[in-house]
Structures are given as C-alpha cells and as structure tokens.
Amino acid sequence: xxxxxxxKRDIRTVPDFPQKGIMFRDLTSVFQKPECMQYxxxxxxxxxxxxxITKVIGIESRGFIMGSIMACRLNAGxxxxxxxxxxxxxxxxxxxxxxxxxxVIQMHKDALCPDDVVLIHDDLLATGGTMKAAIELAKKFGxxxxxxxxLVELDGLNGRAILGDDVEVSSLIHY
Length: 175
Description:
Layout: H1 4-10, E1 12-15, E2 23-26, H2 28-31, H3 34-48, E3 55-59, H4 63-73, E4 77-83, E5 91-98, E6 101-108, E7 117-125, H5 129-139, E8 145-153, E9 168-174
Parallel strand pairs: 3-4, 3-7, 7-8, 8-9
Antiparallel strand pairs: 1-2, 4-6, 5-6
Helix pairs in contact: 3-4
C-alpha cells in the first residue's frame, strides 16, 4: 500500500522554474500515477466526508483535478474559479497581488448560495494570494462555512498566515 512518504518522493522538483532560485514542486508527476491519485482521493474523502460539503471549488487549473474528484466523492457540486475572462456567464471577481503584478479570478454569479458549505481546493499553497482571493469570492455569497485544502504546502513562504482564522486549512504534504 502506498504511503504519504511514497507520494512525496514522487513529486518532481524542478529547479529554477519559473525563474531562477525557485524550486518548483511539480505535481504532474504524481497525477500520472493511479496509486498516487487513489491515495489523494481516499485521504481527502475521509477527511471531508462528515463536514457537510455541498460545493467543492477548484482553482484553475491544477485545482480542477482533485477538486472535481472530491466533488464526486462527497456528492457535492463542482465550481470552477478561473482567470478573468474565461467564464461565459455573469461573474463575481476578486483580485490579488502576485510577485510580478495583480491578477483577477472569477466565479459564476450563480455558483454558490448562503446554504452552501464549501471546500476550496488547490494543488499547492505558496504565498497564499490566489487562495485568499478565492476565499473572498466564496464569502461574497454568505456561505455557511469555508474549508480550504491543498495537496502541498510550502511552509517557508507562510501563505497560511494570510488566509484568516475563520477558515479551516489543511495540507497533506509539507516542504
């Protein structure tokens, strides 16, 4: 049976990507392995099965992979958060600062309602800007509760600190 350490060993580290000095943790290497995907699916389903999740939000693009799987496993709807201009219907948006500028993410205006309990998923937590904006978007709908999940967290970047104390944050793998 595969373990968390086995999965962690299979995550490819790409030096100097996307720029010099960055050690990029590439999850596509584990997404290629069914045993790793099954490990993620089982572990996350067990963690959230009793939380009353009604919608799983996946952040473009790698958050769509496990986010949609989790929605199916939890018998919840799936809601994509995309970069500005990629969704076809009326949207709400939030902006955030990146190392090299400001970016905007959007969600459909009819994606959530006040009765929803949401799980926002992304593959990796670095500085936290994208997830902070995603949490802000979900809160615009007045949802009951927000859970946040990552497969990997880069602890040294302290991204968790900006997400707020009113959301429950969980990461499987820490670097």
